[in-house]
Amino acid sequence: MRSVARESTAVAVAFERELDAIVHDPDFAGLEIVAHYAQPRRGSLTLSVTIDRPGGADLALCERVASRLNAQLARLDGAYALQVESAGLDRSLVRGSDYERFSGERVRIVTSLTVNGGKTHRGILRGLRGETVVLQTESGELLLPLAAIKTANLEYDPRADLRRDKLQRKQRHGNDRKHPH
């Protein structure tokens, strides 16, 4: 008789293998696996994957990824629960390359050590210098060692979206006056 542990291991290995296949599949172009894990829980396995892509990961993309994973995992013995989610508007920054990719964005960084009198830092991300994250704050440039970062997330500002929408409407309205139908 096969053990639950062996079945869970087979499911976890297949999960990892299929995630790798998905990010290399042209049907999922631009897809990024931000984070994932397989964790035993009460006789089954909890599988979780957080995805992103330029422009964001919508519900339809999450469903496509879940369907692809379920199609592969259903062939195996073993109970599992699958969760596929978007990285969201407050996406976590988990790799060094994320700090370069999202340079220019507003971020919230929590450090494990006190830096400049605090552990929570907000500002505009300016990228990396070696192993140090550069953050532009109201009081100037702040250097945070990567090793001291506990969590880092993009900080969504709905007011910026509203300002951008207002400006776009204003520009469209101005173009309508210049080019009447």
Write the layout of secondary structure elements.
Layout: H1 4-23, E1 32-41, E2 44-52, H2 59-73, E3 80-86, H3 96-101, E4 106-115, E5 118-129, E6 132-137, E7 140-145, E8 149-154, H4 158-178
Parallel strand pairs: 2-3
Antiparallel strand pairs: 1-2, 4-5, 4-8, 5-6, 6-7
Helix pairs in contact: 1-2
Summarize the main sheet.
5 strands, antiparallel
Instruction: Please tell me what the overall shape is.
Output: globular
CATH topology of the largest domain: GMP Synthetase, Chain A, domain 3
| Count, helices | 4
- Quickly count the domains: 2
Q: State the separation between the terminal residues, measured CA to CA.
A: 76 Å
Biggest sheet: strands side by side, in what order?
A: 7-6-5-4-8
Q: What would the average pLDDT be, to the nearest integer?
A: 89
Structural class by secondary-structure content: alpha+beta
Kindly state the number of beta strands: 8
CATH homologous superfamily assignment of the largest domain = RimP-like superfamily, N-terminal
Residue share in helices? 25-40%
Query: Per DSSP, what share of the residues sits in E-state strands of 2 or more residues?
Result: 35-45%
Uncertain ranges: none
Order of helices and strands: HEEHEHEEEEEH
